User: Which sequence fits this backbone?
């Protein structure tokens, strides 16, 4: 058995039980920070891939991202890096960078958001591994820097949000709290990586796949039909508050003050809402007044939404939430009560009784809380428990020995000279 840098055996970590293990034959090097790039690796790791995240020895730019526990551990970092291995190198040194390039070449699959003109360019790694498949997250297609909240500003969506009564001339933008473009980009990058690997399996060719965050935002806007809509109408869409564009849906308040959201995009959903709110007669009278049939589809319901909203809110004013929720459920309606995020995190239906979540693993933070499995599930197959995030550098010794064939003495020398770092479990 090979010896570790401390003179004892090198401690290789067995694969933790993962959901379905569909990608157990796939190894990926990830050199990442912040959200989009780690998300791509996370999704692959949760389906069984060996994802080796390589960071600077003091931690990447996101290692201490807010919010931190009292012990200084980032809860964001911890959750975006579950089921991964961690290698810590001095990436400011030539030697540390060469080790990362060598790891990427040996593995053949790379996810990163480092600039293309950095030491980890596709060409540099492909010189050692011609069939390399790399996925690189960029800002904009022309090389400009970007992050989620800046590409969102460019997309136009923040100026669609806000109360309907705001004056368009001076109304402020409303940013979304969730960095949605980051997460969509991460998911797309996981897909792009697997597409590149499939192409290599068929042809033997590598691929340099670049995914600009800005293109994901503006491209999603186009795919949704919103770009065509704006060009067709020759103007911007009006603000709608919490109403659903082009269909029937909005937030309402029950008699006892509970806010909830309903939506009706299908005939069945519409019939259910009318029955649950007990407004069939009022709907018939409004149809006669407006000369429409609301059961005919989204258009009449959307165009007459204000009258309908008033009608449904008047009915909601007569019922407490418990009664109204029971009626909505009995009619098979699409609805949900508004919760704070703290309430959602403790909701038994959303979390405790949801098979998405598994037993809390031994988190580096020491804080126990629910952890997710893969979002995908396979009926009839048992899902494994969620895996923990690694400590920074937890697998440095293991990976350098197994991937690069370095002897214990060589690894010990790298550690002694500050080129490599072992686990920060006990800093």
Assistant:
């Amino acid at each position: 058995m090979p010896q570790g840098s401390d003179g004892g055996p090198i401690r290789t970590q067995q694969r933790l039980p993962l959901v379905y293990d569909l990608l157990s034959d796939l190894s990926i090097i990830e050199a990442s920070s912040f959200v989009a790039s780690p998300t791509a690796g996370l999704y692959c790791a949760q389906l069984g891939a060996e994802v080796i995240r390589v960071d600077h020895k003091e931690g990447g730019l996101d290692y201490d991202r807010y919010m931190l526990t009292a012990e200084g551990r980032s809860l964001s970092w911890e959750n975006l890096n579950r089921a991964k291995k961690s290698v810590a190198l001095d990436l400011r040194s030539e030697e540390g960078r060469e080790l990362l390039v060598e790891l990427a070449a040996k593995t053949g699959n790379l996810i990163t958001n480092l600039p293309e003109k950095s030491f980890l360019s596709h060409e540099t790694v492909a010189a050692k591994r011609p069939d390399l498949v790399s996925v690189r997250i960029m800002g904009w297609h022309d090389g400009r820097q970007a992050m989620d909240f800046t590409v969102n500003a460019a997309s136009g969506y923040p100026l669609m949000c806000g109360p309907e009564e705001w004056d368009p001339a001076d109304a402020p933008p409303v940013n979304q709290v969730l960095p949605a473009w980051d997460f969509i980009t991460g998911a797309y990058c996981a897909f792009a990586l697997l597409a590149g690997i499939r192409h290599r399996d068929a042809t033997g060719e590598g691929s340099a796949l670049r995914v600009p965050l800005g293109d994901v935002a503006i491209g999603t806007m186009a795919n949704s039909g919103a770009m065509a809509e704006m060009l067709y109408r020759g103007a911007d869409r009006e603000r709608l508050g919490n109403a659903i564009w082009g269909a029937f849906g909005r937030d309402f308040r029950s008699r006892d003050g509970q806010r909830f959201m309903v939506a009706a995009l299908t005939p069945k959903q519409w019939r259910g809402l009318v029955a649950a709110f007990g407004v069939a007669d009022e709907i018939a009278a409004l149809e006669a007044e407006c000369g429409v049939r609301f059961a005919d589809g989204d258009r009449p319901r959307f165009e007459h939404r204000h009258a309908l909203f008033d009608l449904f809110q008047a009915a909601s004013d007569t019922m407490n939430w418990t009664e109204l929720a029971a009626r909505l459920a009995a009619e098979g309606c699409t609805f949900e009560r508004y919760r704070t995020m703290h309430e959602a995190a403790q909701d038994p239906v959303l979390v405790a009784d949801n098979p998405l979540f598994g037993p809390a693993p031994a988190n580096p933070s020491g804080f126990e809380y629910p952890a997710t499995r893969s979002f995908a599930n396979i009926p009839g197959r048992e899902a494994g428990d969620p895996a923990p995030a690694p400590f920074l550098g937890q697998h440095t010794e293991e990976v350098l020995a197994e991937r690069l064939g370095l002897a214990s003495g060589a690894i010990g020398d790298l550690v002694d000279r500050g080129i490599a770092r072992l686990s920060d479990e006990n800093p």
Q: What stands out?
A: The chain has two domains: 27-222+356-421, 248-337. The chain is about 40% helix and 15% strand. Residues 248-337 form one domain.
